[in-house]
Structures are given as C-alpha cells and as structure tokens.
Amino acid sequence: MKLQPARYRLEVRVTPRAGLLDPPGKAIYQALHALGYVEVADVRVGKAIALEIDAASEEAARARAEEMCRKLLANPVTEDFEIVHSDNAPAAGDHR
Amino acid sequence: MKLQPARYRLEVRVTPRAGLLDPPGKAIYQALHALGYVEVADVRVGKAIALEIDAASEEAARARAEEMCRKLLANPVTEDFEIVHSDNAPAAGDHR
Fold first, then answer.
1. What is the DSSP letter of A22?
2. What is the C-alpha separation between A1 and B20, in angstroms, rounded?
3. Nearest CB to A28 within list B44, B49, B95
C-alpha cells in the first residue's frame, strides 16, 4: 500500500537574527516615526514564504521544508527560520 | 484614571495579492526545483514585519498597526496584509 500524496501549505518565516542590524526594519521604523507613529518601539522585517508541497503526510512536508530552509531559504549565519503553520492540518503549539 | 500603556508585539504579514506575479517567489521555486525539490508546487514570498507598539490595550495596538499597514507597510494596489498575532495577548481565530 502506498500513501497518496496530498498538498500541504506551509508557511516559513525567515527573520534577521536577534542582535544583527536590520536596515529595512530601521528604515520602516524611521518612516513610521516621521508619520507620527511615535509609539512604535521596534520594527524587524523578515520574509514570509508560503510553500505548497506534495507529500505523504504533514510531517514529511515539514521535514522537507526544514531541509529547504537549511539549504536555500534562510542564511545560516544571519537568519533564523521557523515553520509557522500549515493549512491542511493546523499545527498546534508553534504559534508564538 | 489613565490606562498604563503596555508594549505589544504584533506581527504583520504582507503578501503579494493572489493572481499578481511574484518574481522572488518564482526565483525560489526554480531554485528549489534545481536542487531536486520537485514536490514544491508553489512559492509565494511576502514580508513578515514584527512591530513593537506601546498602547493602552491590544485592540488599540492592532488598530494602530492596521493604520500603519494602510499608510505605509502594504501597497494597496498589489499587496494584502494581515495582522497575524500578538505576543502579549495571543489572538484567537485569525491564524490561517
């Protein structure tokens, strides 16, 4: 018996590592203050990458997505990544 | 009596509107296929903007963040935005 693959929608969030400079975040911070949003204390800009992956299970899709992050999607020196959620089978416990 | 402001951490997700071209997404899609990840059916790239906002309540922080999205963070013609979650008071129901 072979598992029928299904399509999973995962979202990967890639963020600049804490402590590293984030020039786009700084630019947005300054623009928001210039517009009067002085209550903004910090802005960090990352990428939200939505992936649709054909896999036999959600676990398999997540494992492949993690590999893709390590190999291509995130810079291992400057960025952190997190697989935020999946549409087919909502993940519990990893929303921050 | 005046409400003491607290700091709220909200995350805004800005994504290219469905149907519009997404050149960074296409580039990542092609790179993943070149690396052998042929099970990837689609890639869309958006921004994940983490905001820290001082406000009297979570609702107030969200309302201000929505204004910021409309005025600066999202392009009203080509992008959609969504306020995904907050750290101080996790929001229910708007995780996709």
1. -
2. 40
3. B49
Averaged pLDDT, B62-82: 96
d(CA B55, CA A57): 42
Q: Is residue B72 part of a domain?
A: yes
pLDDT tens figures, A24-33? 999 999 999 9
In a domain, B91, yes or no: no
- How many other CB atoms are there within 10 angstroms of residue B22's CB atom? 21
Q: Which domain holds residue A36?
A: 7-86
Domain-located, residue B17? yes
Low-confidence ranges of chain A (pLDDT < 70): 1-3, 88-96
Å between A85 CA and nearest CA of chain B: 8
Looking at every residue in chain A, the average pLDDT score rounds to 88
d(CA A26, CA B18): 28
CATH assignment at residue B67: 3.30.1280.10
Complex ipTM over 0.90: no
Domain count, chain A: 1
Contact predicate B45/B24, CB 8 Å: yes
**Which residues in chain A are contacts of B51 at CB distance < 8 A?**
40, 42-43
